[in-house]
Write a structure and sequence with these properties.
139 residues, alpha+beta
Length: 139
């Protein structure tokens, strides 16, 4: 099975509100940017990436958790993050039964995560280029 088939199966096997919620956030994430890649990692977690991990989704007993790997670095003007607020790197959105997500704000958060990943990758590439140039100059 490929990653998307694994996620399909997870959603189908979670046949209550959590499966519907996970399906909805998946649709929102994938609909935000056509270059987002869906992956299956860590023995059963959907992961969405673009130039680095954006978020990991999990259906827990009483919630659906979306963990943003660099959430502490992302703007969150709508205060979607409600877990991990004191952490230095990640932030999460815990969705409980009956919760509704602000789709526009959520997709803006996804875009911010993509922008962060791209800036981080660009910075890494440019610092590597400078190091190579300095090495060449010394030779």
């Amino acid at each position: 099975m490929n990653a998307s088939e694994h996620v399909d199966q997870l959603i189908a096997n979670t046949d209550d509100w959590r499966g519907k919620t996970l399906a909805n956030v998946r649709k929102l994430i994938l609909g935000t940017d056509k270059d987002i890649v869906e992956e299956w990692k860590w023995m059963g977690s959907p992961v969405w990436s673009r130039d680095g991990i954006i978020a990991v989704g999990n259906a827990h007993k009483d919630k659906v958790k979306l963990t943003f790997s660099h959430g502490a670095s992302l703007p969150d003007p709508e205060n979607l993050f409600n877990n991990g607020l004191n952490g230095k790197v990640w932030r999460a959105i815990d969705l409980f039964e009956g919760d509704e997500i602000d789709e526009r704000a959520f997709q803006n958060l996804i875009r911010a995560a993509i922008d962060f990943n791209q800036a981080k990758a660009k910075k890494k590439t440019s610092s590597g280029t400078r190091a190579k140039a300095a090495k060449s100059k010394d030779a």
